[in-house]
Write a structure and sequence with these properties.
6-stranded mixed beta sheet; 6 strands; Alpha-Beta Plaits; alpha+beta; about 220 residues; about 50% helix; 2 domains
Length: about 220
């Protein structure tokens, strides 16, 4: 099992890290440097995997996003959706930060549902997330992003707290270009979705380059 898999199967990473370090110390005191080295490498793998995960939501973090985006070829198809929770400050102010944290965790789970195998979700910062969708065509990228928006809007949030409602706005960039360029375009489109009234997805039409905002 890889260190990253260990992090996502319910085993607390800090315990695994401490265990490998302790075993490495034990073997080192016995002069068994080969086994000590092996466990130190496992400890380093766990620490590295943990450094790429957001500690609250367990999704990937900004560091992972920044590492992955430059690796996508500028000549290939890449979609990047930037997601922002609508009026999240009012959720924290009304219900408290503990509930706000639970909302962020639930949103992260809902965003990761139904992603293609090579796609991933990363917490961009605060209440913003990024969905990175390599190799998908424009139509499927729009469908995936809007399905995530609808899934969150329809989620029974009142089960967490009576009266609670959560929606997201999404800016979706798709086409040929560097990952950083797509992220920048997605950020601009996210503001278009916000200006259009929130709980919407904004993207550029392939033929006219017109910005389209969509919701139910």
């Amino acid at each position: 099992m890889s260190a990253e898999n260990e992090l996502t199967t319910g085993t607390p990473a800090p315990d695994l890290l401490a265990l490998h370090e302790s075993i490495a110390d034990l073997f080192a005191t016995q002069g068994d440097w080969r086994r000590a080295y092996r466990h130190l490498r496992s400890a380093l793998d766990i620490a590295r995997a943990g450094s790429l995960r957001d500690p609250l939501t367990s999704s990937y973090n900004r560091r992972y996003l920044d590492q992955r985006l430059p690796g996508f070829p500028a000549t290939g198809k890449l979609a990047v959706a930037l997601v922002d929770l609508d009026r999240f400050k009012s959720v924290n102010d009304t219900y408290g930060h503990l509930l706000g944290d639970r909302v962020l965790c639930r949103v992260a789970d809902l965003l990761q549902e139904g992603l293609p195998p090579d796609a991933f979700c990363a917490r961009y910062g605060g209440e913003e997330f990024a969905l990175v969708l390599p190799g998908v065509n424009h139509r499927n990228a729009v469908w995936i992003a809007d399905a995530a928006r609808a899934r969150i809007a329809r989620h029974p949030w009142s089960e967490l707290q009576p009266g609670l409602q959560v929606t997201i706005s999404v800016g979706l960039a798709h086409g040929v270009g560097s990952g950083s360029r797509q992220l920048h375009r997605a950020d601009d489109l996210l503001y278009a979705a916000k200006r259009a009234g929130r709980n919407k997805i904004a993207y550029q039409d392939r033929e006219s380059s017109q910005v389209i905002t969509h919701s139910e």
